[in-house]
Amino acid sequence: MDDPINPAKRRPRHSLLVRLTHWVNVLVLLVLLGSGLQIFNAHPALYWGHASTFAEPWVAMTAEPKGQGLAGYTQVGGLTVETTGLLGLSDGERRGFPAWATLPGYRSLAEGRRWHFFFAWLFVFNGLAYLAWGLASGHFRRDLAPRRAELSPRHLWTEIRDHLALRFPHGHYNTLQKAAYLAVIFGLLPLMVVSGLGMSPGVNAAWPWTFELFGGRQSARTIHFLSAMAIVAFVLVHIAMVLASGPLRQLRAMITGGEAPPPAPGAHP
Amino acid sequence: MTSIPRRGLLAGAGSALLGLTLAGCDQISRNPGVRATLARAEGLTMAAQRLILSRTALAREFTPADISPDFRANGSLRPAGDDYQALVAENFANWRLEIGGLVERPLSLSLADLRARPARTQITRHDCVEGWSSIGQWTGARLSALLEEAVLKPEARYIVFHCADRLDAFAEGDRGLYYESIDLIDAFHEQTILAYEMNGADLPVKHGAPLRLRVERQLGYKHAKYVMRIEAVESFAHIAGGQGGFWEDRGYEWYAGI
Predict the structure, then answer these.
(1) CB atoms < 10 A from the CB of A263, how many?
(2) Residue B192: what pLDDT?
(3) Which of B125, B69, B36 lies closest to A200 in space, CA to CA?
(4) Which residue of B has its CA nearest to A244?
(5) pLDDT tens digits, residue range A148-170?
(6) Residue of B111, B113, B116, B114 whose CA lies nearest to B92
(7) Do A103 and B29 touch (CB under 8 A)?
(8) pTM beyond 0.90, yes or no
(9) A107-146 residues touching B, CB cutoff 8 A
(10) Whole-number pLDDT of residue A258
(11) Which chain B residues touch A60 with a CB distance below 8 Å?
């Protein structure tokens, strides 16, 4: 990693482009999630296939009479649970996700769509910049591709035990971390784009594979939703890992680039 | 470095920031400058789709077995007013579609006239902006043939569809009336038809009788129901709210290919 001849020239832990695209992505994904939930709330139900089977949704958030008032319910497959205050009904209003989770907080499909598509473009540009740089600079090959030795069962088992004991080696990414990042960068995030395009009637006409890949537009919508939830799960684990492995050091590294190189001889302190 | 008080401080600052952010988001969303900026993505989306995708590509057509038994009707389900009720009572026998504006030969066509014009039948998926989809079979007159018959003037750029239904009872004058507009690329697309039949029967009232637009590569709100008059225009800025459609005047995208 480091230049053994001139330690002052060694790379920061996170390159400038990784830091920049990371924080842009934080903002962009937050906006996409909030506006996406706003859009979902316009029809808080999910289906499989080409068309909606209104009587038999796969997932549905509803508000039904209960006693004197209403209660929120969430149905997933054959299971229905009461979710008043969170899903189906919150602040006395029928809505899929509550106001605090949506952008804007008040109900507006039109505004949700404006936010979503503007930030979807930012997401694509940011992602392309990261991918181009990751390939050109060797970031993927050097930092993310697992080495052969890292894939041995014995090594993986050691890493799993270390994770369970909350022992995290500093410096290089560990193999489980690499696998998680690779799955998100080359799996989940591109899947969000493709399943999003799979819902566009314009794109569907010219590129039928965008919905056929999923088995229909309603399936694409379901996959889009589930992938978004998977990204939320990834982010929660990601934040938990940062908190468990020295949050201030980690945060500083993602902002400034990482441990400053040792001072060159004769430099001012 | 990571002592507990510091963590508590971070968490406290974080949740305070979150509260401020949530309150701020709604204010940001209502800001006209922000709205104008966000709306710019529509131009990029439309340019990208028109540049990259084939302009003549056909929307996927399905088989009779795919037709939705529960095709949902949205928006107006039956226009109010005596005029429309009278049309329904006589089964649209005296209804006429007017085609005018920037055309050389204005047309006035009865349903029988429309049925005598070049037609197309297609089983397509209808995608509502709300997120749901239904599949239906549509038979109607091809818009391209009608426009060729009326002969567009060179300055015509958009085709506007004026409808019988008042969807917003509180808006003044023509601002509450439903209308839509499409450009000439979509107007001359092979699947763009004025449907008078749905699933092999006369178009039901709740789905837009006697005539509804099908513009298969865009979302449901572009598929104007209860079409009474078609107007070729150079610009739609002077019509109702000036954004090219009832929902467009209420913040939705004019280009609804996404």
Answers:
(1) 11
(2) 98
(3) B125
(4) B2
(5) 999 999 999 999 999 998 888 77
(6) B111
(7) yes
(8) yes
(9) 108-111, 113-115, 117-118, 120-121
(10) 80
(11) none
